[in-house]
Amino acid sequence: MARVAKRKKKPSNTAHGPISRAPRRVKSLQKFLRAYGEGENGREARKAFARRVGSSLPYLEHLGYGYRIASVELSALIEKHTHGLVRCEDMRPDIDWVYFSARKSSPLNAQAR
Fold first, then answer.
1. Which helix or strand (DSSP H or E) is residue 14 part of?
2. Of 9, 18, 100, 104, whose CB neighbour count within 10 A is largest?
3. pLDDT digit string (tens) for 36-64?
4. Which residue, 94, 104, 91, is CA-closest to 53?
5. From the CA atom positions of the chain, what is the Rg in Å?
6. Any idea where the domains of the chain sit in the sequence?
7. CB-based contacts of 79, cutoff 8 Å, min separation 6
């Protein structure tokens, strides 16, 4: 009789909370990127914004659709360069931003210099 390998159960929780199958969209980032408009001029403006925050346009689009998760540093840069229209809390609700903003050596304070 052939032996069948047992499948390991996937964990229902991780260190960052429950595993979510559905991507979590960042609607404020999507709205901000759409505000640049359509066409070649809008795309170039979105690319320029991505370069300002040290990223690429496809990566920012993936963040907006929830396929990727932004780092703390990138979240802070995006909030800074959007003048608060896209907030860190929208991009990373799993982070305690009050704690980060209170620390002098936090990525939020380092980016503000």
1. strand 13-14
2. 100
3. 888 889 999 999 999 999 999 999 999 99
4. 91
5. 18
6. 24-112
7. 86, 87, 88, 91
